[in-house]
Amino acid sequence: MTWLTNFVLPKIRAVVSKRSVPGNLWNKCPGCEQMLFHRELEANLDVCRNCGYHHRIGAMRRLEILFDDGVFSRIELPKTIADPLRFRDRRRYTDRLREAQSLRGPGSDAVVVAHGRIDGHAAVVAAFDFGFMGGSMGVAAGEAVVTAAKLAILQEAALIAVPASGGARMQEGALSLMQMARTIIAADMVKEAGLPYIVLLTDPTTGGVSASFAMIGDITLAEPGATIGFAGARVIEETIREKLPEGFQRAEYLLEHGMIDLVVPRAQLRPMIGRLLGLLRDTPPPILPPALALPTPEPA
């Protein structure tokens, strides 16, 4: 009986028992509610193959998509004071930072800065990570944008800002609001140096980020369906006591009303940005497929 109990019975149970399946193999699309296999979703740049919904992606994934062949050099950012106000709500601010940094490395924050080439053009990219405390902009994030601007000037490269943020970081109080002015000055430094400054608005871009450097690009692009605005739609409706139009604060609505220049699908971002950089820097742009070519103005 010991042999049957200890050896045979476990073997039989292993054969007939249901194998556990990892829970992250399938993703439900928020746009069409279809189930998407994770490898297919990743191969399609995290865009739903059925409805075209653009899923949110992290900063490192964003850099891989934008830079040629996914090759880039990440910049070590200056260290800043972690908890200037010793803030605490339900939890200590330092505990929230540690939790967010445990997934992205010690000392990390909401912005990643890297440099490389986009369609052959030198570029510095400052990409926000919404997964890090909602991409909120505190002292560290503001310092990262300033560092990216200085690096772009040093390398005589274009600066590409990719915000994905809920706004200023409340745990840093007025210090976080000061980053609005600092990032605007940083963008102006790049412009004064005669270098292109392009902003790619992604889902979501709101609050103090949308009210600062995110809206002053030489050219402003956006991904399809991205939420872009300052205050939330519900807050606006309660304030003005009116129903907002359909699609309000979406990229397509802002394009229609002249707030942004182009809405570009994720798969077309790299060649489109490369085309724009070529035009802004007076260098021969690469030949694009007809779908990506900029419209030629008709003669008057």
Can you put this structure into words, describing what you see?
The protein is α/β, with parallel strands linked by helices and 300 residues long. It folds into 2 domains: 31 residues, no CATH class; 224 residues, 2-enoyl-CoA Hydratase, Chain A, domain 1. Helix content is 35%, strand content 14%. The chain has a 7-stranded mixed beta sheet with strand order 3-4-5-6-7-8-9, sandwiched between helices. It has a two-stranded antiparallel ribbon with strand order 1-2. Helix 7 links the parallel strand 7 and strand 8. The chain is globular.
Brief rundown of the structure:
With 300 residues, the protein is α/β, with parallel strands linked by helices. It has helices spanning 2-16, 38-43, 59-66, 93-101, 139-155, 173-192, 207-210, 233-240, 251-256, 269-280, and strands at residues 26-28, 35-37, 72-74, 111-118, 121-128, 158-162, 197-201, 219-222, 262-263.
Topology:
Blueprint: H1 2-16, E1 26-28, E2 35-37, H2 38-43, H3 59-66, E3 72-74, H4 93-101, E4 111-118, E5 121-128, H5 139-155, E6 158-162, H6 173-192, E7 197-201, H7 207-210, E8 219-222, H8 233-240, H9 251-256, E9 262-263, H10 269-280
Parallel strand pairs: 5-6, 6-7, 7-8, 8-9
Antiparallel strand pairs: 1-2, 3-4, 4-5
Fill in the keyword field for this structure.
two-stranded antiparallel ribbon, 10 helices, 300 residues, 14% strand, 35% helix
